[in-house]
Amino acid sequence: MNRTSELSGANLISASAVVKDFSGHRALNQVSMEVPEGSVYGLLGPNGAGKTTLLRIINQITAPDEGSIHFKGQPIGPDHRHMIGYLPEERGLYKKMKVGEQALYLAQLKGLTRQEAMLRLKHWFQKFEMSAWWDKKVEELSKGMAQKVQFITTVLHEPQLLIFDEPFSGFDPINVNLLKQEILKMKENGATIIFSTHNMASVEELCDHITLINESEVVLQGEMSEIRETYRADKYLVSFQGDPEKLSKGLDPDFELLSLEENGMGRQATIRIGKGEGSARLIRNLVDITEIKSFQEILPNMNDIFIQVVSDTNIKKGS
Amino acid sequence: MNKISLIIQREYLTRIRKKSFIIMSVLGPIIFAAYILIPMYFATLEDKEEKTIVVIDDSKLFTEYESKGPKFVIPGTEYLKFQVIEGVTVETFRDGFEESGYYGILFIPANILASESSLIYSTKQTSVEISQYLERSMDSEIEHLKLAQHDIKDIERILAEVETSINVRNIKWTKDGKTQESNTGVVMGLGYLSGMMIFFFIFFFGSQVMRGVIEEKVSRIIEVIVSSVKPFQLMMGKIIGVGLVGLTQFLIWMILSAVLVTGLKAAFFPELNRTPTEQVVASDLFDQGDGQEETMNPSEAIPEVGDLDMAQEIFASLKSINAGVMVGAFLFYFIFGYLLYAAMFAVIGSAVDNETDTQQLIFPVILPLILGIYVMISAINNPDNALSFWFSMIPFTSPVVMMVRIPFGVPWWQVALSASLLVVTFLGMTWIAGKVYRTGILMYGKKASYKEIWKWLRYSS
Known about the structure:
The structure holds two protein chains of two kinds.
Chain A: H1 2-6, E1 11-22, E2 25-36, E3 40-44, H2 51-58, E4 66-71, E5 74-75, E6 84-87, H3 99-109, H4 114-127, H5 143-155, E7 161-165, H6 173-188, E8 192-197, H7 200-206, E9 209-214, E10 217-223, H8 224-230, E11 235-241, H9 244-250, E12 256-263, E13 266-272, H10 280-289, E14 291-298, H11 302-318
Parallel strand pairs in A: 3-8, 3-9, 6-7, 7-8
Antiparallel strand pairs in A: 1-2, 1-4, 4-5, 9-10, 11-13, 11-14, 12-13
Chain B: H1 3-16, H2 19-44, E1 51-57, E2 63-66, E3 69-72, E4 80-84, H3 90-94, H4 97-100, E5 104-108, H5 112-115, E6 119-121, H6 128-149, H7 155-162, E7 170-173, E8 179-182, H8 184-218, H9 222-226, H10 231-268, H11 276-296, H12 298-320, H13 323-351, H14 358-381, H15 386-391, H16 398-405, H17 412-440, H18 450-457
Parallel strand pairs in B: 1-4, 1-5
Antiparallel strand pairs in B: 2-3, 5-6, 7-8
Helix pairs in contact in B: 1-10, 2-10, 8-10, 8-13, 8-14, 8-16, 10-13, 11-12, 13-14, 13-16, 13-17, 14-16, 17-18
């Protein structure tokens, strides 16, 4: 966390020591977070960890009890509202209002002029092939259609910061793909994106930074590549040809044979080496006892890290 | 770009465009007129069925003997006839009365002077109108008889002379020395109407604010909106937008009513289209010419003149009330009364997840308003007593109660104090409402209660 302060010049959002209490329940406890400009930032954590509360504070929907939020180095204020687009977890539109009128209204609330909003909406509606919906009431749309409308209203004012709270829950798979594409496109165009999610696959696919919150506190934070490095399991998967017996007997006692199996792919062994030790000695050992077909490190996936960190902190708290 | 004005615009336009608004705007004055006119119409409806009542007069006090035979002294009406039958008892009619075609039997006992009661036998419930007519007529008949027993000379003439019907006409002197005629009934009616109208508007449009807040909460759009604007801006935008809808509706009603009234006036009271001077001169002449006849034959001349007098008096009274003060006060109490209550309705809306949960929360809010209506009804008769005074100062009841006092004339300092209290309370209430609202709108699944609302009020943000 000390490391991040050096980078603060390039941070779009920095939250420092944010505390938020709700009648006896502490929703956020000393949460700090630095979101570099142009990054895709993942906010992870189990249900009720405080992710939505933090996102609401960044959106100025609620104010922190302690701590502060800075936007490009300035304390966040009403002027920054136009620079943020927010898609809340619970999505909704005025049901009785017409689609076009509603999109225009929401865009104007974000500071666009009516003409500008109209121009951009026409473009987006054509792009998503939904021009025919303009005069329909929202209640006449299907859920997927309404989600598209809501997505457009979130990004229409081309904000510097986009905040998506659980963007992939509730969207159908086609819209999830669409959303992912748009997120990456917006990143290319220089926008910064923060999203909270349970979906670890999407985190690996999209995020370059993450913060993991558990029980109102930050338990893991940093760049994805660094976190992967830290949580290397020192496990290797070896496909080989030859006698499994010979392999298990010939393996140096320093190495731990975790599993040995035979399936459609051929024979495979999972081997753990000592913490921090390179793979060179293992390869030399294996060359002597069997014929290696492939050799690869088993990298930890975010799901494993998530579960490991959360259960570790829960055990610590429990003890 | 001012965001509050955007919100006001949306709230206003979406409501104005609704079919229900257009229907209410057109039907409002008609329904309102119907509420007043239909009971009046029913009240004037006479029973058109001819009824004959048999009179068995044992006292003989109510029977005159003419050449045609015995006649009841009380005259019948167009639809009510009396037939005196002698030498029979009530029992004679008991069997087969239904088929006899008579409406009822009036039995006057021989000792009526002492017992002061008579009986009507009938197979039907005798109508109140008939009973009252008989009571009044027999009362005056017996009074005359009793007076006659004193054997005073010229008693009939004296009585005719003594009989008076005083019409108290209120003449107000204005500051510039002019005299104005006012009718207390009209003043009362105007005050009552204004008070009721304010009550109705507060309740109706306050509920609309509440429903609007619930709609935003239930549809979950609230979070998107408050990421663009402050919750307080959203709340005020909604309150003002809905208030403007109310004012618009009110304006439409006034214009339509004015058109209706002008139309009706022209159709039914053509005399009123003359200038005031012409009216005065005409009525003075009329009064002098008819003065003698009135006492001699009151039954024929009075109703016509009375009707005209009445209508003239009403319009004269309406002119006597300072229209500027009245309209100004109405708009002020209408607007600030609405704003005060709308803030409270917004809080209720923010505290619940659906409309059914509002019931228990609404009651304490509208209680003072209903109390205001009760005090208003009493204040109509006593516009200057302590009760009326205090309730026209308390901001939660003043919009309703002060409105009935104003047409009677209220010291300026009282109006000023009441108005300032209302404005101050409105500001305080809106500040509190804003604090509760911004927490409430993001709360789901909490059991809505005043305890919870109190907790939200104390949240830092």
